[in-house]
Amino acid sequence: MAGSIFGKHFQISTWGESHGKALGVVIDGCPAGISLSEEDIQKDLDRRKPGQSPFSTPRKESDKVEILSGVFEGKTTGTPISLIVYNTNQRSYDYSEIAKCYRPGHADFTYDEKYGFRDYRGGGRSSGRETTARVAAGAIAKKILAEFGVDIMAYTLSIGPVSIDPAKFKRDEIFNNFLAMPDQEAAEKAAAYLHEIKEREDSAGGMIECVVNGLPSGVGEPVFEKLDAMLGKAILSIGAVKGVEFGSGFNAARMTGWENNDFFQYDEEGHLTKLSNNAGGIVGGISDGFPIVFRAAIKPTSSIHRMQKTVNKAGQNIELQVEGRHDPIIVPRAVIVVEAMTALTLVDYLFERIFSRIDLIKKALL
Amino acid sequence: MAGSIFGKHFQISTWGESHGKALGVVIDGCPAGISLSEEDIQKDLDRRKPGQSPFSTPRKESDKVEILSGVFEGKTTGTPISLIVYNTNQRSYDYSEIAKCYRPGHADFTYDEKYGFRDYRGGGRSSGRETTARVAAGAIAKKILAEFGVDIMAYTLSIGPVSIDPAKFKRDEIFNNFLAMPDQEAAEKAAAYLHEIKEREDSAGGMIECVVNGLPSGVGEPVFEKLDAMLGKAILSIGAVKGVEFGSGFNAARMTGWENNDFFQYDEEGHLTKLSNNAGGIVGGISDGFPIVFRAAIKPTSSIHRMQKTVNKAGQNIELQVEGRHDPIIVPRAVIVVEAMTALTLVDYLFERIFSRIDLIKKALL
Amino acid sequence: MAGSIFGKHFQISTWGESHGKALGVVIDGCPAGISLSEEDIQKDLDRRKPGQSPFSTPRKESDKVEILSGVFEGKTTGTPISLIVYNTNQRSYDYSEIAKCYRPGHADFTYDEKYGFRDYRGGGRSSGRETTARVAAGAIAKKILAEFGVDIMAYTLSIGPVSIDPAKFKRDEIFNNFLAMPDQEAAEKAAAYLHEIKEREDSAGGMIECVVNGLPSGVGEPVFEKLDAMLGKAILSIGAVKGVEFGSGFNAARMTGWENNDFFQYDEEGHLTKLSNNAGGIVGGISDGFPIVFRAAIKPTSSIHRMQKTVNKAGQNIELQVEGRHDPIIVPRAVIVVEAMTALTLVDYLFERIFSRIDLIKKALL
Amino acid sequence: MAGSIFGKHFQISTWGESHGKALGVVIDGCPAGISLSEEDIQKDLDRRKPGQSPFSTPRKESDKVEILSGVFEGKTTGTPISLIVYNTNQRSYDYSEIAKCYRPGHADFTYDEKYGFRDYRGGGRSSGRETTARVAAGAIAKKILAEFGVDIMAYTLSIGPVSIDPAKFKRDEIFNNFLAMPDQEAAEKAAAYLHEIKEREDSAGGMIECVVNGLPSGVGEPVFEKLDAMLGKAILSIGAVKGVEFGSGFNAARMTGWENNDFFQYDEEGHLTKLSNNAGGIVGGISDGFPIVFRAAIKPTSSIHRMQKTVNKAGQNIELQVEGRHDPIIVPRAVIVVEAMTALTLVDYLFERIFSRIDLIKKALL
């Protein structure tokens, strides 16, 4: 109940610090009978792993996942699945400076205020490394959703001033460039921008877009647990996310009802369609069977080598140059984290859909 | 567990449909010893009440709240507080048309898909009227927060193309115009825009900004229950909200680390300050003691008189003109709902701050 | 989160005091599509209603239930069901004495200690009258369970020294005598005992047994949410219950493994049977498809007219004679409360069984 | 949400099977600032460790606990504490027989029914070995409670027909004999009984009593989360527990109100006392400041060498002799598990007491 447990049915409990022995997650509520191997999880972990691009921290971590429980003879047993990833590369480097001051943009100050002291090694629990556990659990959620035909695709929409051109969208391209951009040209422009930012010892932010196909209609709860509210919470829980919007999003504030309403129409084959998807696939908090579309704004990496003003605990104003290994941009590595949080949210509400109707419950039990 | 319960400690359970006998809320977890009267709650309900402006539905509702339990001799007892508001003005009007088709922008279709059928009278549970219960509970949360020096202020930031001018910000003005805008000139421009929109039988959207002063540092939980994630969920759970952003929000995606980081400095008196508040008062999901600032995008009202394309349940494409009494803009009435949801979220996490540290727990119990 | 909310999926939030305006319950998570009327609920309320026997308080309450939301055209909509029962007979009688002292056996002292003050009118929230809301919600849970073939039967097993004779068990008899005993002779003996107890201005306790037939195997969760643990919590949450046991219960402490183990056997038709049911239908916290059997011990009514020693808030030792209208025995009226709490627990875990296996989830959704 | 998570604030998530790589627990919600070492936890684990007495399984397990996160510089950080215990002695022995049949008294059948298949190695998740994680987490809860003066003492009350003599109660004796009995003579009689039971290739059950001193008044919530209901759930969640009773317990069913009510009296020094404690320190679900007293009935170990009747999955009635290493009695090893579950429950409700009153919340925050 202190923030590290997520989910209602497929419930995950994550743990671990940036420079501790290991990180991990315990999943309680994964149904029995799903074939699961470490490879299923590893492939997603490899997507967020550091040290794979000129734009991510050179810190080398194998990030190998180990399944400690909950799987027997290749299948989930329905009991808790415990996953662990050991930290193998915490450079034993001097944190005495950082221990005494507050890095701008980081949670150093707020953790001290909240807990009275903090694990200052690499940010401790507030480090982005914590997302390793989310991605591991999310890989299982994605595997389950795939069995129901639900496909989650996130990608980098923009980096600093460089946005993708929808006309040049290529899904495969997401995996072909370091920046997880589905548009090769934009990726090249963004890379050039990042090289320049790096030289200035600065960092950049960007946007991630996520599209979910195949989610049936009727998923989500009314009032407080609207599907967009729950997805919003999940995405905003990722460090560095400063905003989230669904469908027409912030533009809706400037549109009129006539412009923003999605008109229903039956096509020639009599299938229900919509003439637009400004709703982003969610109306009244419940999925309408059309693609779920949302975007997240990611702030620039807080750690920069450039000299910054800040204070120390001795009550002095100081100038600080943050040492260590940083990503000039974290957006590309956050793409898989967005997919993971989306999957963890959807698997819960997809299952819960059964409880909305007595006929669905009877289908399962009688 | 089906969406109508909100909160961890100050936990509310809301109920009621647009055209049912009544709406209400049960609050479990309100501490004992708080003086509470129906007036304390009524003053907020009066802020969202319909029929008060040329831009809100003429439906007349007294929206008088009644306390049914949990208060004894003017004080909360610590046991559940049950609040009820009777529906007095459900115009007995013909819903047979709406029962057979799906209104664009409304939850008619998604509710049918989820539940198999729906209460089609005025949107049933999906009606904005549901927020009456939120505002009633929120008024109590706001009263508690006030005892801790926490002040919540929400207002209309923009309507369609018209935004307020920060230089002309006047808090009192929020209560002086029909549009809850803290800038009189902007309010007049927006009113003119709305008259035009109304003539075109269309509707408008807008943005709400919320600023929280006096919240101590150290409020919020790490990882999944970051304060911005929880506030985001709360705000996105309000029907018609399509996006939410904190501090520099979506602009952060275009800024650099140097531009976006808030530098700490001690002022002459040795008080800790920040040279900017791009974080919106939340870092690592925990409050830093500076103002909490966020914005929500509200879509234009879905109900418009203008003829729209849609389908009926008989499988036909039809043209629909939505009858009835509608707001051409719901933003001004949503302002108090944003305050309520903010208060309901903050009261939970302010209390929970105690559990973060053994010294705080001892202060209370030993 | 302060004790008045029960359940995981079929989640109820109860409210109301003995001498307040009304009592009620909000049910969130009742599936859509169940036909429901006030009569369905009233018939169970009538079983716990006071003033129906020489052994229950003469306080007259119609206890008429009203459905305020969540039902449309005779069917549940899947949104919150709000039920209310008005208090019509709070005798305006003088509580000034009770306000100043602590009645032995009652929660007067503990409520003052916990909340700092209390609603002293008839026990306020700690009154047994609170169970009205449980029975109302339980009636709906029982109706749902019946659609799955689950039958719950509770009855008075003993009153003071008088126990039923299993050989004379008649289910109909439960409804034929004032004491809800399935054995007419025992009921007559118990009635004689109660008349004597009443003359001594004292009160009696007893035991309730509950048998559940038709619950499928595989219901219940491992480790902390074993079906017996959850039923135990539900039953122990009924005021006056001092103990609960399952199957062979406390006798198991004296038996050997050989005596207590239930041996499986296939009968002639090849159906799986057990040669005994010492487990009470639950093994490892999960139902085995045989009858669930448990017993609860109910303490004697705390309110007695006989003079008792106690203290007042002025720090004095006093003698107290509790005025007012009391049941010399509450066991018979508690029988329906036991059924209600059993139903509320089982409906949750029966539904949750679906989430244990991916094949059941697919049966419902694909 | 599938049974392996316990607690509201000090929330634990346990995992692991009898013959898996390891078992463990993640604790979310442990306050920051508590000094904690592996030794603090190990000393309780050593109390439940197998192979320490002639009456426990000869399976040798070091059961060494390792802290993987949540502790920095000897103090809890307020973030998740992950504890792991490796299984070092899973004898690689032939389970092919057990895989095909159902052991009487074990969860083999119910797990197959619930999950469709099971990890048959030593009972998998249903093994008593799962309690290792409870004891590890409970040790931390006990350490916190000790800082508030709360002392938990559980012991063996009876084994088969042999009960302790209250007149001979010696607390130290609990740690001096293999059976955790506070009465040396009774321990010797019980040992003799167990030797005889062992020779008959049978097993025995018994009772555990738990007494909590120093718990302040006002702990516990009304209605559904009464302190006795929550303790009851916690204790009944321990495998093999068949019943639980508080204070006068099942005897209360035979007592009269006059006999069972605890009369309050002020003593010479003016301290409030009670002339009896039939309530077991809990009235209306809330602690009254007097000792909490409850008892649990433990069934005899299900695994016995003696030949038993059962069935196999091939549909045949068979005779089964359960091989392997079994405890003829598990009561003594369950004593520390009872203490752990009691501590885990009390720490939650002790903390929650703060939320009952606005004055306590202000004491902590203002």
From TrEMBL, chains A, B, C, D:
Gene3D superfamilies membership: Chorismate synthase AroC
HAMAP family listed in its UniProt record: Chorismate_synth (MF_00300)
Transmembrane segments: none
Primary role: This reaction introduces a second double bond into the aromatic ring system.
GO cellular component: cytosol
Entry's Gene Ontology BP terms: amino acid biosynthetic process; aromatic amino acid family biosynthetic process; chorismate biosynthetic process
Protein name (record): Chorismate synthase
NCBIfam families according to UniProt: aroC, PRK05382.1
Bound cofactor: record note: Reduced FMN (FMNH(2)).
Reaction equation(s) it catalyzes: 5-O-(1-carboxyvinyl)-3-phosphoshikimate = chorismate + phosphate
Cofactor: FMNH2
InterPro entries the UniProt entry points to: Chorismate_synth (IPR000453), Chorismate_synth_AroC_sf (IPR035904), Chorismate_synthase_CS (IPR020541)
Originating species: Defluviitalea raffinosedens
Domain of life from the UniProt record: Bacteria
Span of the signal peptide: none
Keywords, ordered alphabetically: Amino-acid biosynthesis, Aromatic amino acid biosynthesis, FAD, Flavoprotein, FMN, Lyase, NADP
EC number: 4.2.3.5
Residues the entry annotates as binding NADP(+): 48
EC class name: lyase
Example of a GO MF term: FMN binding
Binding residue positions for FMN: 125-127, 284, 299-303, 325
Chain intervals with Basic and acidic residues compositional bias: 40-49
Family assignment from sequence similarity: Belongs to the chorismate synthase family.
Assembly and interaction partners: Homotetramer.
